[in-house]
Amino acid sequence: MQAVVITMVAVFFFGMGVFGLFAPAVLIRPFRMIADSIEARSEVRAVYGGFGVAVGGLLLMALADAGGMRTGVVVTVAVSLLGMAFGRLVGRAVERPTAFYPVWCYFWVEVVAAGALLASLR
Q1: What ranges in 23-69 are assigned the alpha helix state H?
Q2: H-type helices in the chain, by residue range?
Q3: 3 state DSSP class of 34
């Protein structure tokens, strides 16, 4: 079961990353952000694209547990996801987004993925 959870989260990150690398303006559109400059698209490619591909790849490497790295990688990614969810809660306290999508949809994706990763370590 642990391998299935890790693989699912890895595929999510890898998919988001590839999408961010090749369609940065489209990726951020649901958040009403506009990548209307080379610099803005480069930032989206780096943060959503490159980071997503790296995390997805790292999770897939963790499946092999080379050097006993699996637990450390899984905890690190889970805590990162919880940090992102926490940022959305702060946003809720400050600005109160009303629609479920995209903010709350991704909040729950982050919380569920983090919980699943941490639960897979038992």
Answers
A1: 24-28, 38-44, 51-63
A2: 2-22, 24-28, 38-44, 51-63, 70-95, 105-120
A3: coil
Quote the pLDDT of residue 99.
86
Q: Which amino acid is at 120?
A: S
The residues near 57 (Cβ < 8 Å, ≥ 6 apart) are 10, 14
Q: Contact, 71 vs 62, CB < 8 A?
A: no
CA max distance for the chain: 46
Do the beta carbons of residue 16 and residue 27 sit within 8 Å?
yes
Which residues in the chain land under pLDDT 50? none
Is the dihedral angle over the CA atoms 69, 74, 76, 77 positive or is it negative?
positive
Alpha-carbon 8 to chain mean position: 12
Q: Would you tell me how many other CB atoms lie within 10 Å of the CB of residue 33? A: 13
Tokens at residue 35, please?
């990548």
Answer whether 44's CB lies under 8 Å from 20's CB: yes
The pair of structure tokens assigned to 47 is: 């943060």
Virtual torsion, Cα 69, 66, 85, 24, nearest 10 deg: 140
